[in-house]
Description:
CATH architecture of the largest domain in chain B: 2-Layer Sandwich
Strand content of chain A: under 5%
Structural class of chain B: alpha+beta
Number of helices of chain B: 5
Distance between the termini of chain B: 20 Å
Number of strands of chain B: 10
Largest interface: A-B, 31 and 26 residues
Radius of gyration of chain B: 19 Å
Oligomer: heterodimer
Distance between the termini of chain A: 31 Å
Radius of gyration of chain A: 18 Å
CATH topology of the largest domain in chain B: GMP Synthetase, Chain A, domain 3
Shape of chain B: elongated
Largest sheet of chain B: 4 strands, mixed
Order of helices and strands of chain B: EEEHHEEHEHEHEEE
CATH superfamily of the largest domain in chain B: Fe-S cluster assembly (FSCA)
Strand content of chain B: 25-35%
Amino acid sequence: MKNENLYKYLVRLADNSLIFGHRIAEWTGTAPTLEEDIALSNFALDFVGQSRSLYTYAAEIEGQGRDEDQLAYVKLLHEYKNLLMLEQPNGDFGYTIMRAFIYSTFMHKFWLKMMDSKDATLAAIAAKSEKEAAYHVRHSAEWVIRLGDGTEQSKQRMQTAANEIWRFTGEMFETDGVEQALIAEGVAIDPKDIYDDWLSYIQDIFETATLTLNQDVYMQSGGRNGQHSEYLGYILCELQWVQRTYPNCNW
Amino acid sequence: MTVSKQIIGNVELVTQNDTHFGAEFIVSSLDDISALPSQLKADYLHAYDAIKTVCDPEIPVLTIMDLGVFRSLSISPEAGVVVTITPTYSGCPAMSMIAFDVEVALGKAGFEAVNVNLSLSPAWTTDWMSDIGKEKLTDYGIASPIGKSSELKTGRAALFGITHVECPRCKSKNTEKLAEFGSTACKAQYRCKDCLEPFDYFKCI
């Protein structure tokens, strides 16, 4: 493959979007209010849409005649390279919102920087995704404030969610040889460059939401290397079922 | 003025707009439009007329020209008719429907080999929506995007509560946001506090 690093990088980004989109889509039909049901379904649609663009581009770079569906649906568990945070079960609404807030804040800053990528297609995907992410941040941050600075129970749930999720945040900032090579070429971005911005925004919202940021946790990682928690398997059962049962089916 | 150029075989196709993207369609060779064989020129115009009839399935008053979703058209003996469109939102489910409708429209117009490509770069913005398109949208009952997407501050002002969205029915600015996410990914839900009518706002993205 001519550009194996770029292919791997795109698949990682695509896996993140697909798995997170699939997770959030579980709220469709069961969210607390109709507006929230629509909002979370929109989140899911945005993420799955982003993954389609990324997989399609990855397939093009790979040049083996595969398409987005083959990259998304017929892989083994260890071939998914998504972040561990994104495959965790939705938990309660507070957990879902807290995770969406922490991740979307990261992704918004990530896409903003990616718009300057030397790779025109990646920059174009970033330009589109950045706008979507801005709405995700806005929406989830409003909820974090409302629930954090809400009732005793909602505050406690948001605090628990934050404490639970934080151990997965370290993985967002890890880079390996694949990324470092692309960062040097100006194609990928170094997540460390957005760390301060990301953290200070989270801290600002937490302060308004009267929540405490407990950063003293042991960071979990492994998704990048295909080492996943047991939860991904359950996602794949549902995600891959149709393509596994009726290979290459179309509708 | 936005001009996009594409080389097809040995001629260059130029899509050009005076007021908005896709309003005018000019085929020219590197020298002159007359360099195109008259049959090919007729084919281009015929194909363009067919594509012009395709509407957004979610907002049937807007053609894909109004939306700026249509990007380019090329006709060659090798590849047949190739139409390039661009998605509005990443996850816009209307794209496959639009691609299908383009194929059907061209098929009906007598073109056999038709291919519809999806192009991501440069990324679509609501700035590409034509002025006529925005008017049609408002008449249809959907408030059209306010501000320029390319300017972060004005483009997001409406949704972030800085400027007010005008009610498409009674034109009152006394409106409120109900939810940032609406019936489709590109819309938000609003309500007019004067005529009490709920309505969709097409996000400036």
